[in-house]
Amino acid sequence: MNSNIFSVVQKIGRSFFLPMSVLPVAGILLGIGASFTNPNTIKTFNLENILGDGTFLHGVLVIMSSVGSIIFSNLPIIFALAVALGMARNEKAVAVLASALSFLAMNTTVNALLKLSGQILPDGSYSSNTLQGAITTMCGIETLQMGVFGGIVVGLVTAFLHNKFYKQQLPMVLSYFAGIRFVPIICVIAHIFVGAILFFIWPTIQQGIFAISNLIMASGYIGTFIFGFMERILIPYGLHHVFYIPFWQTGLGGTAIVDGVTITGAQNIFFAQLASPNVTQFSVEACRFMTGKYSFMMAGLPAAALAMYHCAKPENKKIVGGLLVSAALTSFVTGITEPIEFTFLFIAPALFVLHCVLAGFSFVLMHMLNICIGTTFSCGLIDFILYGVLQGQAKTNWLMILPVFVGYFVLYYFIFKFVILKFNLPTPGRGDSTENKLYTKEDYLNKKKSSNIKTDATNNDTLSPIIIDGLGGTDNILDINSCATRLRITIKDNTKINETILKQTGSAGIIQKGNGIQIIYGPQVSIIHSNLEEYIAYMNKPIDKSTHDSSTIKGELKAVSDGKVISLSNVPDETFSSKALGDGYAIQPSKGEVVAPISGTITMLMEKTNHAIGIKTDDDIDILIHIGIDTVTLNGVGFTPLVKIGQKVNIGDKLVNFDKNYIEKNHLCSDIIVIILNNNNTPKIKYTTDIIAKAGKTTIGIW
C-alpha cells in the first residue's frame, strides 16, 4: 500500500511540473515587460524617449507584461487541467475538457452559495463579515480564494472519475452517453457537490493554512533551513514539486497586500510586487522560499564539477572535462542541476546529503542578508539577471549575494575534492573501470528498481485481440477513430481484412472502401475504441532489426504463451531472476496454454509434476520452460502434458495445458519462465520485453 501511495504522490508531483514548466516563459515576459515599463526604471536609465508612454516599445512591453501576468493570475485552472492530464490513464484529452468544465462548475457553485449566504451582496459588494482577501475573481467568477489548491482538487477528482468511468456502459436507451461522453457529465455533477463541500470547509482549512504559515514564519531561520533542506532531499524521489509548490502558490508561503489586492503564496507575492510600479523593496519573507537556490546552482555545483575534473586521471580529463563543463554551464545558466546532482547521488549518497545541508544553509544566508531575488522555475543566470540585477539593488539587495557565491564556490570545491580523494569515490574519469559519464535520475532509479512489472491493459477485454486479428494485425493498422456508432479505421492492406472474424465481435455491419473500414457497433463504440487503443498501446513492439542484416539472423525465439512479456530480472524467484541458469524472458500468461517457442526435440518433461519442459534445437541450444514458481508443490494437479520425451515439435505446437486459476488460488505465481541454458552453444540473444505477446507468433528474441 505504501508503495502505491508513493507512486500516486510521484505522479501528482509530475503533474505539478507541467504548469511550473510554463512559468519561465511567463516570468520572462512579465520580468522584462514590468521592468522596462516601470517609471522609476525608465527615469533612472534616461529612457523616456525610447520606452516612455506612447512609444512603440512601451506598447510592446505592456503587452508582454500583461501576457505574463495573466498566466500567473490563472494558475488555479492551469493546475486543474495539468493534474487531470497527468493523472488520467487514457483518453487524456477528455480528462482535460472535463477538468475545465468541472473547475467552472465548482466555482460557480461556490459563487451561488456566497450570494445565498449574504457574503456577496445584491449590489456586488461584500458583507462586512467577510474577511479581506477571502473572496477573489477566477475566470470571471467571484469565488473563495483557494489558490492552486482549488485547481489541484478539481484535477484530482476529475482524474479519479475519468479513470473510473471513461469506459462506463449505460442502458441501451442512454448508450449514446456511455464511455468518454459520460465523463464530463459525471464530473460536472460531482463538482457541484465538491463546490458545496469546499464552501463549508474551506474557511476552516484556510485558517489552518494561515496558522501553519504563521508558525513557519515565526520559526525564523530554522524554518528556512528546514525548507531548503527538504526541497533538495526530496529530489531523488521526484517529490520536491509536491513540497515546495504549496509554499510558492498558497497561503503557506505567506500573505501580502499589493496595490490593495490580497496575494497569497511566495511566488505570487513576488510577481505581484514585480508588476507593481509602487513597490520599492521586494518581500524578504516571500523570497526566503526561493532565493536560497542561487548560491549552490550558480556557484556550488559548478565548483563541485571543477573538483570532479581535478580528481580525474590525467588521461581522462579531456573527455571528462567536456562533460563536466557542459553540466556546470547548464547549472549556472539555467539552474538545471540533474547531471551533477545525480552523479554524486549515484556514487556517494552521503555526499548528496551534505549537499542538501549546504543548500539549507544557503536559504538561511539569503534570509539573514535580506536578499530577495525571485524565480519562475530554477535559479540560474537568466533568472538572476531578470529578477535580481534588472530590478535594482534597492529592491533586491542582489550585490550581497556575490560574496556568498565566492564562499559557496570555495566551500563546495574543497569539500568535494577532499571527500572524493579521501574515500576514493569513482567520480567521472577516476579508475579504469569507471564510465566517463554523468548520471541521471533514471540511472539512480534503475539502480534501486526491483519491483515486478504489471499491467491491467487487457483485463476484461476480449474483443480487442479479435478485432486486431480481423484487421490483419497491428502492423496493418494506420489510424483508429470513432464517431457516434462506428469504429473508423485506416489500414495498409485491405486484402488482409477478415470480415468473418470481425462479425464475431458483435458488429452490426461492416463498410469497407479502399483502405478505410467502418465497423458498426452502436453507441457503445466509444468503449470499444478506448479498449482497442489501450490494448494496442501494450501490444507487440516489433524487435528492432535495423542493426541486423536479415541474412545474418540465425534464429528467433517466439512467445511461449499469450500474455505480458517481462524481463527475467523481474521474476519473483532469485534462481531465475539472477540468471544463474541462463538468460531468457518470462510471461504473465492470460490463459493456461504453453506452446513451443522454437522448433526442436523434447528432452525433458518433469515426471509426475509436468510443470517443466526441456527442448533442444538442431543447433544444440537447450531451452527450459518452467510453468509458475514453486508449482512443483502441486504434484502435477492442474497440468496436462500434450507431448512426450523425444517428440519433435515446431514453433507454436502445444506442449502443456495448465489451470492458471488453480495455481493462483494456491497463492502461487503463474509466470511462465523461458531460459536459454548456459552451455558452449548458447547464442547472444537480444530480447524485447514489456509487450503483450501472442503465443507462437510474437518474436521475443533474435540472434
Automatic annotation (TrEMBL):
Gene Ontology MF terms: kinase activity; protein-N(PI)-phosphohistidine-sugar phosphotransferase activity; protein-phosphocysteine-sugar phosphotransferase activity
CDD domains recorded: PTS_IIB_glc
Domain (PTS EIIB type-1) ranges: 461-542
Principal place of residence: membrane
UniProt xrefs under Pfam families: PTS_EIIA_1 (PF00358), PTS_EIIB (PF00367), PTS_EIIC (PF02378)
Domain PTS EIIA type-1, chain residue ranges per copy: 573-678
Keywords recorded for this protein, A-Z: Cell membrane, Kinase, Membrane, Phosphotransferase system, Sugar transport, Transferase, Transmembrane, Transmembrane helix, Transport
Protein name (Swiss-Prot/TrEMBL): PTS glucose transporter subunit IIA
PROSITE patterns: PTS_EIIA_TYPE_1 (PS51093), PTS_EIIB_TYPE_1 (PS51098), PTS_EIIB_TYPE_1_CYS (PS01035), PTS_EIIC_TYPE_1 (PS51103)
Residue span, PTS EIIC type-1 domain: 3-432
Topological type in the membrane: Multi-pass membrane protein
Taxonomic path: Bacteria, Bacillati, Bacillota, Negativicutes, Selenomonadales
Localization per Swiss-Prot or TrEMBL: Cell membrane
InterPro entries: Dup_hybrid_motif (IPR011055), Glu_permease_IIB (IPR036878), PTrfase_EIIB_Cys (IPR018113), PTS_EIIA_1_perm (IPR001127), PTS_EIIC (IPR003352), PTS_EIIC_1 (IPR013013), PTS_Glucose_EIICBA (IPR050429), PTS_IIB_1 (IPR001996)
Transmembrane segments: 16-36, 56-86, 134-161, 173-202, 208-230, 251-274, 294-312, 319-336, 342-364, 371-390, 396-415
Listed GO CC annotations: plasma membrane
Native source species: Megamonas rupellensis
Annotated catalytic residues: 483
SUPFAM superfamilies to which the protein is assigned, alphabetical: Duplicated hybrid motif (SSF51261), Glucose permease domain IIB (SSF55604)
GO biological process annotation, one example: phosphoenolpyruvate-dependent sugar phosphotransferase system
Organism superkingdom: Bacteria
